[in-house]
Amino acid sequence: MLGRELKNRYRIVATLRTGGFGQTYIAEDTQRPGQPKCVVKHLMPATHNPQFMDLARRLFNTEAEILEKLGRHDQIPQLLAYFEDNHDFFLIQEFIEGYPLSEEMLPGQPMSEAKVIGILEDVLNVLTFVHSYGVIHRDIKPNNIMRRGQDGKLILIDFGAVKKISTQIVDPETGETPTIAIGTGGYIAPEQALGHPRLSSDIYSLGMTVIEALTGIPPRNLPEDSVTGDVLWQYQARVSQEVAVILDKMIARNLAQRYKSAAEVLDSLRYVVSATVPRSLNSDRVATEPITSINYSHNPNISQELQVKLTNLLTDEIGPIAAIIMKRNVSKAIASQDLIERLLAVVPPQNQERFRQKAYAAIATSAQTPLQTSSIKPTQTPPPTSAATNQINPDFIRRCEQELSGLIGPMGNYICQRAVKQHPQFSAAELVEFLVTQIPDPTKASEFRHKFRF
Do 114 and 239 have their domain in common? Predict the structure, then answer.
């Protein structure tokens, strides 16, 4: 193809890439001043069977018209021309001076969270536009995201839709054309790999792309949970809880749990980024309707009613992302008081006391589960355990409460009290060993045990 001039205009000067779907070249437009570069995509049908060619031709024209509309976006290459020549199909697109995002993502060198958020927001803006036309990109990955040299913006290239032209196979008996998976291993969504792509498939691929940026590890090298199949990536990354929950929802294998649209992801991301900005500076925030039910996590110590109330309170502070953060923390919390302390970590500092007061008021007005018999806030000290119901000296129990609170915070009082009530048969030594298991930091756990040597 080198040196060939298509339509007496586009002279092929270099090969960009060759793949199973066709070839991509750099050409010069000889009919424009300065003969600027352009990209030529040569799509070769799987067969020249007349029935297939009729289908391929209709598909090609339809997809080209879509690409022409998408090219109106500043961060998508403009379609300059498309035509058929000798039973092959050609697309002529704008040439982007720059380099692929993969050149910024070096193995073993994770990007900062701030930079990854910038990448995510930039691509989501483009993807929102693409999805507004009902178009699925089908092949989002670092090599298909270009960093434009003139302004540093990210450009989404190489839409997989046109590749369908080379993968359609007509069944001569039924006339049906089964869908063949298009995408790249590691980045491709599970349902897309089975030949059933949808808009949220692009969200999965983008999620895996930014996870690679955060970890410095290619997706195929990340381990999976042996039971759920979920990608295990967080222990390899330095990332905030709020961003982590967004990424987890982007790459959820279960479609019901994954974001449905790029706009939805973008909305969550913007709320997280602005979560520390005082409400007075966010007067344009759209009011959120109160939540009456949520897909709550099972926790025998925290009722569904309380989860809904706390989700509404948290939504008032940080927006729709609250439901995700709630679900993530409910399963980890040992009691409602512990859940509140966890949620405070994502509430703007100036609003934390207000949130704490409203949250404890919600506990008081919610149905209590058997393990929530205490309404004591973690900032208060529970009454001493009666020696009539436990042989451990009450002074020893109070000392345990003080030492545990000194290591893990006010929740130490509640944890100790609960342990005594639930395990009245414990000896002093057994109580200490049980409390040691409640301290997540190994160093602090060892320090606690050392204070109670028998």
Answer: yes
* Cα–Cα distance for residue pair 137/89, rounded to 1 Å: 19
Same domain, 118 and 241: yes
Q: Where are the alpha helices (DSSP H) in 154-286?
A: 164-167, 190-193, 199-215, 241-250, 262-273
139 catalytic per annotation:
yes
- The first and second tokens of residue 237, run together, are 């990354």
Tell me: do 249 and 134 sit in the same domain. Answer: yes
Higher per-residue pLDDT: 412 or 383: 412
pLDDT score recorded for residue 297: 60
* pLDDT value of position 230: 86
Nearest residue to 291 via CA among 252, 259, 321, 333: 321
- Quick check: 144 pLDDT over 50? yes
Domain range enclosing 418: 394-451
Q: Which amino acid does the sequence have at 383?
A: P
DSSP secondary structure string for all residues of 386-435? PTTT-SS-HHHHHHHHHHHHHHH-THHHHHHHHHHHH-TT--HHHHHHHH
Do 109 and 18 belong to one domain?
no
Same domain, 79 and 198: no
**Do both 54 and 102 map to the same domain?**
no
CATH number of the domain within which 149 lies: 1.10.510.10
Q: In the chain, what's the furthest Cα-to-Cα distance?
A: 100
Q: Write down the catalytic residue from 29, 139, 158, 338.
A: 139
pTM above 0.85, yes or no: no
417 vs 377: which has the higher pLDDT: 417
CA nearest to 390, candidates 416, 418, 427: 427
